[in-house]
Every structure is written in C-alpha cells, then in structure tokens.
Design brief:
Elements (H helix, E strand, L loop, with lengths): L15 H18 L14 E2 L10 E5 L5 E3 L2 E3 L1 H14 L4 E6 L5 H13 L4 E4 L2 E2 L8
Length: about 140
C-alpha cells in the first residue's frame, strides 16, 4: 500500500490592511470633494415649520430683513428699484422662480408685497424660505 504525503490545506485569509487603506483613502477623497452648503449674506431669523419643500439653487433670492428692507444680491434696494431689479433678475433666471427669505418678525404686509411684485415681474414659481422645525416640537 502506497502512502501519499498528506497535503497541507491553507486557510483563506482576508488581508484587512489594504482594505482599511482603501476605505481611508475613499473617506479622505469624499471629505475633500464634498461641498458643504453655507448660506452667506443677510442674517434673518426664519419661521419654523414642520414640512418644507425644496427649491432650485438657480432661483432669484430676495431677502427681507427685520426692518422690512429688500435685498437682492446682498445689496439693499428701495421699493421702486426693487421691482425693476427683480424683473431683470427673473428674465435672466432659467426657471423663473423667486425665493423670498423673510425674517419672522417682519410685517406680513411686506412679505405679500414682495410676492406680489415678484409675480407681476414675471416669476412662474414663488417660494418662502423657512427653517425645519424639530420633529419633537410639532405644536401648532
């Protein structure tokens, strides 16, 4: 009877060091290439709501501060100049939408005035910018 030498079976080993290196490199890549959105400009305190929709980043942004002043492109504009300047910005906007970012302490009349001027200036979509309310405080 012939006796053959018993073959040694090698176990399968997963090398974790290269795997961890690749995950680390991917993490660094995504951190360096990600774009963190930070809105600059006039500081306003927005009202809080439970549900809010999204709007296009190409929309014309109109800011109304606590004193009721209109801002377009971070510069103050008067009431008469506001309508003319807004009309020019809407004509250049690809989706003809306007976002009104009004301080929660501003008079309601001032916000409706801005929305009315935007609509008569040719805006097809009107949006109000708000902050999302935390889920735990759904009080009306």
């Amino acid at each position: 009877m012939l006796r053959f030498p018993k073959r040694k079976t090698t176990g399968i080993a997963i090398m974790l060091t290269p795997l961890i290196d690749m995950v680390f490199l991917l993490l660094i890549y995504f951190l360096l290439t990600s774009n963190f959105v930070e809105q600059e400009g006039i500081t306003v305190s927005l009202p809080k709501v439970t549900v809010s929709g999204l709007y296009s980043e190409k929309a014309v942004l109109v800011v109304i501060d606590q004193a009721g002043r209109f801002y377009i492109d971070d510069r103050t504009v008067g009431d008469q100049e506001f309508a003319n300047l807004l009309r020019a910005y809407i004509s250049l906007s690809p989706d003809k939408s306007v976002v009104v970012k009004a301080d929660k302490r501003v008079a309601y009349d001032r916000v409706t005035q801005a929305l009315d001027i935007a609509k008569t200036s040719g805006a097809l979509q009107l949006h109000l910018s708000v902050e999302k309310r935390p889920e735990s405080s759904n009080k009306l």
